Amino acid sequence: MKELLTRLCGAFGPAGAEGPVRDMIKEETAPYSDEQAVDNLGNLVITRSGSGDKTILVAAHMDEIGLMVTYIDENGFLRFTNVGGVFTKLLTGKRVVFQNGAVGVIGQEKLKDSGELDLSKLYIDIGAASRDEARKKVNIGDMAVFYSPLGMSGENRVTAKALDNRTGCAVLVEALKKMPSEPAHRIHFVFTVQEEVGLRGARPASYHLKPDYGLGVDVTRVGDTPEPEYKLDVSLGKGPAVKIKDTSIICHPRVTSLMIQTAENNKIPYQLEVLERGGTDAGAIHLSREGIPSGVLSIPCRYIHTPAEMVDLEDLDNAVLFLLRLLEEKWE
Amino acid sequence: MFIKELSKISGVSGDESRVRNYIKEKLSAWGIEYYTDSIGNLYAPCKGSGSEGRETDLMLSAHMDEVGLLVASIEKSGHLRFYTVGGVDRQALVSKPVTIGSNEVKGVIGAKAVHLQKEEERKKELKTENLYIDIGAGSKEEAEKSVKVGDYAAFLVEPSGEELITGKAMDNRAGCAALLEILRRDLPYSFTAVFTVQEEVGCRGGTVASYRLNPRAALVVETTGSFDTPEVEEKEYSTCLGKGPALTLMDGSVITHPRVLERLISVAEELGVPYQFRRYTGSFTEAGVTSFSREGVLSGVVSTPCRYIHSSTSMLRRSDWEHLVELLGGFIRSVHEKGVAD
């Protein structure tokens, strides 16, 4: 799991430019797929045909937050905008990397007071001395992501950029590898695009696949750090979480109760998650077509949308087991 | 010139019939078939030679509606209070002439006289609730003879200029004019031009149109703010007038599909048409809804750069618009010949 996660987090994949992540997952899962397809917007759909008559869509988004170059000045400094929810205050001094490997650092103009910090006061320095030199490496419209490879913290915890949501991708890939040759249902594993800019990939994928049930796998916030922003009874290392609601979905009671029952029966540690702010692909899935009962299996994650997000590998292993058991259940 | 004729017509979101009728008349005169749908979109399917049935492969859309006002109530004094429709620049409302409802009653947007404003009032921005439309009526009863609650009010501005064109509603009559010009040229390629409604209030016409057509690719023809003006640093310019049509990389509603963007760039370079990227990445366009329609549609946006959009008077360069038309023609041919998925 750690090795796979290291590679997935290292891959470049901001919203709208998920190609490298998609290629990695395609290759990794090819021996375990009955069918692989990429749709119009770039969602990767891996299908396993099963014995039952139900179709279940399991989704994890491949994209991460990033930055996009909007302007290159005559001295070779790049101005940029955000792609997804980037914390402006955390950017100064961080390194970023472009798809072609060019590395830059985010610099900050002199401020009159700290309150006026916004994206227009920041720039990316890629070591170019002029506009022409910069253009040899980077063009307007190019995207960058945090340069922050995976590292261990303690025995079981890892930090890296893009754990949101390569964690979910890794859980799906591992589950796919361990699934019985004939699963109980027809399962579509969907690796979606553009979640970070508004759940955009999941909607067309769900429209196309017409599942009976939807299940999202994504990271969620925790409430176990000093003075957390929200009261949230989710901790790192205490097992995957069954989402009850967030701002994009109230999970279908049939799905949440099936999830809780499955965890209890199999003695898999789990937590209940009520997230006051935040959304995920299931929000788009459950509203597609005539409505699709959906739930979310969440992985607790600290410091979401920073260059150093943190998850517990034990939670991931439990999430894989949880997902496998869940997909064997009767989805009535 | 289509741009100036279209600019003159009142067509606030939800009240696009006059614009639609103008376009219908042109299409009829040229012998082009069209149809409409329940929300008010107008479709002109073009069947290219030897490719019947492929006209829905490519959807080109331009919205007909403009931002404006809606009469909310009539005061005892005969003055009209209003709501804004779409993202009107509220600071630009006061003292502007407007035309109201089907009777085309003329009025002006008024506020408390500057002479009577206290010092602190002068410093504050004027809010919509402090403004009213004055149609010269002396009482509610008199006003009600010519206008009613629910009437739309549009800016009243006579367009002017040949190369540098000023007038109201350039966003997006310039886009409508570009589609009309393409249709007039009677190209031997397959596509459907769609003139949509209610874009300014949330891309509502475009949502319906893209579901109905279910195209393989969609190109939205728009008019975009430039911000290349004093008091703005160059790094904050979005586009520049005179540098050609603008290609959208990303806005608040869509990240342009790379295959559409690459094709637009290669067509522009083949034709020698100048182009620029829209650097501002906020706000939304119809590509945000076409892109995620049904199973997902490859979508992009091309725009005529324009100053002062969403106010009563905007400004664009005819050369940018002409280059936009050339780019559209080239793109249509390219998609007809090679598709867009490859």
Outline the structure in words.
The complex is a heterodimer of chains A (332) and B (342). By secondary structure, chain A is α+β, with helices and mostly antiparallel strands. Chain A has helices at 2-10, 19-29, 131-135, 163-178, 202-209, 253-265, 282-285, 313-328, and strands at residues 35-38, 44-48, 55-61, 66-72, 77-83, 95-98, 103-108, 122-125, 143-146, 151-153, 157-160, 186-192, 213-220, 241-245, 271-274, 294-300, 309-312. Chain A has an eight-stranded mixed beta sheet with strand order 1-2-12-3-13-16-14-15, sandwiched between helices. Chain A has a six-stranded antiparallel barrel with strand order 4-5-8-7-6-9. In chain A, helix 1 packs across helix 4 (163-178) and helix 4 (163-178) crosses helix 8. The longest helix of chain A is centred in the middle third of the chain and has 16 residues, at 163-178. By secondary structure, chain B is α+β, with helices and mostly antiparallel strands. Chain B has two domains: 3-66 and 168-338, 3-Layer(aba) Sandwich (Aminopeptidase); 69-155, Elongation Factor Tu (Ef-tu), domain 3, CATH 2.40.30.40. Helices cover 27% and strands 24% of the residues of chain B. In chain B, the strands form three sheets. In chain B, strands 1-2-11-3-12-15-13-14 form an eight-stranded mixed beta sheet, with helices on both faces. A six-stranded antiparallel beta sheet of chain B has the order 5-4-9-6-7-8. The longest helix of chain B has 21 residues, at 318-338. Chain B is globular. The two termini of chain B are 37 Å apart. The relative contact order of chain B is 0.18. The model of chain B has no long low-confidence stretch (mean pLDDT 94). The chains are: A alpha+beta (332), B alpha+beta (342). At the A-B interface, strand 4, strand 5 and helix 5 of A face loops of B.
